Amino acid sequence: MYRNFQNNQLFIKEVDVIFADKAMFKTITDKNNIQRNLFSFYVNDDGQNIKCVTWNETADNLNKVFNKDTKTIEIKYLHKNNKNTDELEYSVREFNIIN
User: Which alpha helices (DSSP H) does 4-88 contain, by range?
Assistant: First the structure.
C-alpha cells in the first residue's frame, strides 16, 4: 500500500482543538469490501488549521472520550498529504486528552 508520508518520523505535540463540535466518526468500506473506522478532527498548529485523522482502534478509543468541550490534546502523529486534496494532515497514532 502506498502512503504519502513526508517521512516516517513520529512527532509529539500538544495542540488546541478547533471546531470540536464538527469532529466526525464513521465507518467506511473500501473497494475490497473491508470496513475501517475513521475519526477526524481539526487542530490549530502554529496558526494553521490542520485536519487530524485516526483509524480503527485509535479512532474507536478517541471517539469514546472526545466531545464538544475538548480543547487541548497531545498527539503523536505523522505528517501526511491527503491523496485527494494534497493538503497537509496529521495521521494520529496516539493521543492524550489534556482537558
Answer: 56-65
Q: Which of 96, 99, 26 is nearest to 69 (CA)?
A: 99
Cβ distance 42 to 19 under 8 Å? Answer: yes
pTM comes to: 0.87
Which amino acid is it at 57? E
Q: Quick check: 72 and 17 in contact, CB under 8 A? A: yes
Nearest-CA neighbor of 79 among 41, 53, 44?
53
- Report the C-alpha gap between 5 and 27 in whole angstroms: 23
What is the CATH T-level fold of the domain 11-97, as seen in this structure?
OB fold (Dihydrolipoamide Acetyltransferase, E2P) (2.40.50)
Q: What is the pLDDT of residues 5-25, one digit of tens each?
A: 455 789 999 999 999 999 999
